[in-house]
Fold this sequence. Notes:
The protein is mainly alpha-helical. The chain has 3 domains: 2-45; 59-150, DNA polymerase, domain 1 (Orthogonal Bundle); 168-324, Orthogonal Bundle (hpI Integrase, Chain A), CATH 1.10.443. Helices cover 47% and strands 8% of the residues. It has helices at 30-45, 59-69, 78-88, 102-113, 118-137, 168-177, 184-194, 198-203, 233-240, 254-267, 277-288, 293-300, 305-310, 316-324; strands spanning 2-7, 10-15, 23-27, 209-210, 215-218, 227-230. It has a 3-stranded antiparallel beta sheet with strand order 1-2-3, with helices on one face. The protein has a 3-stranded antiparallel beta sheet with strand order 4-5-6. Helix 7 (184-194) runs antiparallel to helix 9 and helix 7 (184-194) crosses helix 11. The longest helix is centred in the middle third of the chain and has 20 residues, at 118-137. The radius of gyration is 27 Å and the shape is elongated.
Amino acid sequence: MGYVRRRGKSWNAQVRVAGWQSFTKSFSKKSDAVRWVQELEQTLKNSPLPRANANDVSLLDLLQRYGLEVSSQLKDSEKEFYKLNLYARHPIAQNRLSNLTPLHFEHLRDERLKQVSSGTVHADFMLLRRVFKTALRKWGYGLASNPIEQVQIPSPHKPRKRRLIGDEKERLLTAASSQRNIYIAPTIEFAIETGMRRSEILNLRWVDVDLDSGFAFLFDTKNGEDRRVPLTKTARDVLSKLPKQDERVFPISANCVRLAWERTRNKAGISDLRFHDLRHEAVSRFFEMGMSVPEVALISGHKDVRQLFRYTHLNPINVFQKYEAFT
């Protein structure tokens, strides 16, 4: 229902429709106020979006719905589910959406900054921003605005420059070979040789590998495109030594790799090295081998050249040795 009232020298218009919070706006002319009320009422009533009353929905309900309807459709949903569950367990999730203000999330931001890095908080709040944006634009929740939009979000991580140093590769492989799981060391070495993402390695099937031609075929990758990855001699040797007892080349879970990586890294005495850094290492090696940007992008699957350069950190010594070859 809409109302138009005189307030001093202006006309105050208000619209209330079930499932939405009230909307108000001031006009200098009564006719403009009446027209605005009529048009907004019609828009809200005829909206194809499912409307939900923000007074009846908690942040916990919203996070669970987002995980079920949005996150579950992602190729790599594990990380997003983890973040959603983390905030679903936080006391803030018990608040109803209509009661949440930017101040709630400012306190949450400051609390998280004491626990994790600013880059992690940035990623978390960008996810929460998407959750509220979906609630407003797609699901029609009756919120006046997105409370995250008014919160100052910390800057993201600086691009990592970590590469393997000295004999770290050998130490990693030695430590990984001592694990009971026979696939850990091959997984690590294969990642260094190909630059594949962890998910791509674990989803690789034997039917998608051609050792004779020296290619591995990846389908439905993170960027939505298929690609063909050339295999180095070392990569082919790694695959040739693996048992073919499963349709997958590396029949282990992502969590298994995560836990084994931590044990391997600790046993090797190496700090501040992530499994994903092996992809940085591989891409940088491709450039040091003399490959062009399009060639490396074809192997790594990067669509954006700027993003590709974030993964690239050349070793000055290797570059200088190449330079000497031309003198």
